[in-house]
Amino acid sequence: MSGMLLANVDPAASDDEIREFLVKYGFPPFTKIEHFEGDGSQPSVLLSFDELDTVALTKLQSRVDHVYWKHRELRVRILQDRFR
Questions:
Q1: What domain of life is recorded for the organism (predicted)?
Q2: What's the CATH code of the domain at 70?
């Protein structure tokens, strides 16, 4: 199981839209999603993937890091197990 923080996500994006976007770029469907609004300037989602380990997820990271989606530049961070 591994985790990925997807930052600067459009707050209007639904869980299904996020799932479809990531699958389009080769990610397997996530198993859990948590939304974090923060101060509203860069809403984020924390995604869990039961099918991927951290190494595999890191290899996929560059496919969506700094990609523009819904008029926002996404930022991606892979979370190590010790931080989850």
A1: Bacteria
A2: 3.30.70.330
